[in-house]
Amino acid sequence: MLSFEELKSFLDEKADQYNSPDFIEDDPIQIPHRFSVKQDIEIAGFLAATISWGNRKSIIRSADKMLDIMGNSPYDFVLNHSEKDLEILREKSIHRTFNGEDFAYFIRQFNKIYKENESLENLFLVKDQETNFQHAIERFRSGFLETEKHRSHKHISSPYKNSSSKRIIMFLRWMVRKDKRGVDFGIWENINQKHLSIPLDVHTGNISRKLGLVFRTQNDWKTVEELDAAIRKFDENDPAKYDFALFGLGVTKELL
Q1: End-to-end Cα separation, the chain, in angstroms
Q2: What tens digit of pLDDT does each residue of 170-182 get?
Q3: DSSP β-bridge partners for residue 98
Q4: Are 199 and 166 in contact (CB under 8 A)?
Q5: Per residue, what are the HEC states of the chain?
Q6: pLDDT tens figures, 69-102
Q7: Which long-range contacts (CB under 8 A, 24 or more apart) does 34-37 make?
Q8: How buried is 176 (Cβ within 10 angstroms: 0-12 exposed, 13-18 middle, 19+ buried)?
Q9: 0.85 exceeded by the pTM?
Q10: For position 256, what pLDDT does the model report?
Q11: Spatial distance between the Cα atoms of 226 and 34, rounded to a whole number of angstroms
């Protein structure tokens, strides 16, 4: 086992190595990087994050398909689509269990939100005394999802149901985290990045256990908070930078 200082030094080195523009090319974050308007970045980023499970090349292809359908102008499409546009969407195959019906539902919900809000940031604000995004994600779910049950609800996971909410946590890192590396956008001004968590998936979970950062065997919200407690000791102001280290180590299989 590495000492605290050795582990911090190792993770800092790996975060520095993988947090570079080279990361963008093979990652779903390349999808929102095609845009410069805040709302385009938010919508493209949220959709890309929502379908981020499975092979990364497949995710990017599916996200490309969604951008094509929206005429590569997500914000304009969200504001100005017609009912006929949504009917056409519903017939499309998108990505695994995220189908055209889900895509149309998301577009409709985005339309409602952006008619009342300049940015999705308004729905994710962290309140005083909150240390992570658990409650903010639930508030977002309440604002984004209709109370009537819909098949698309399953694509917005709930920390209250002990989901790791990996895809939303990843989207939040993209929007909130600020540095000069050019990977994350940091376009949300009213949320402190100290509240960010590590998006917990197979890669980051396995590496975290191998390094002794977490001990729970499930990749759930309780483990997200266990990892929060460990990783924030290394950098309480920018804990999510270690996502690059853990993910990079997992993908490259460097520790196997």
Answers
A1: 15
A2: 999 999 999 999 9
A3: 95
A4: yes
A5: CCCHHHHHHHHHHHHHHHCCCHHHHCCHHHCHHHCCCHHHHHHHHHHHHHCCCCCHHHHHHHHHHHHHHCCCCHHHHHHHCCHHHHHHHHCCCCECCECHHHHHHHHHHHHHHHHHCCCHHHHCCCCCCCCCCHHHHHHHHHHHCCCCCCHHHHHCCCHHHCECCHHHHHHHHHHHCCCCCCCCCCCCCCCCHHHCCCCCCHHHHHHHHHCCCCCCCCCEHHHHHHHHHHHCCCCCCCHHHHHHHHHHHHHHCCCC
A6: 999 999 999 999 999 988 888 878 787 788 888 9
A7: 34/67, 34/72, 35/74, 37/75
A8: buried
A9: yes
A10: 60
A11: 35
Calculate the dihedral angle through the C-alpha atoms of 27, 252, 52, 35, rounding to the nearest 10 degrees.
-10
Q: Is residue 87 classed exposed, middle or buried when 0-12, 13-18 and 19+ CB atoms within 10 A define those classes?
A: exposed
Inter-residue contact 156 to 168 (CB < 8 Å): yes
Measured from the Cβ of residue 236, the count of other Cβ atoms closer than 10 Å reads 9
Q: Residue 188 has which token pair? A: 């949300």
The two tokens of residue 144 are 């984004």
Residue/partner pairs of 87-94 with CB below 8 Å, 24 or more apart: 92/65, 94/51, 94/62, 94/65, 94/66
Residues contacting residue 146 through CB under 8 Å, at least 6 positions apart? 109
pLDDT of 151? 66
Q: Which two tokens stand for residue 156?
A: 């917005």
Task: Read off the pLDDT of residues 27-53 as tens digits, 9 standing for 90 and up.
Answer: 999 999 999 999 999 999 999 999 988
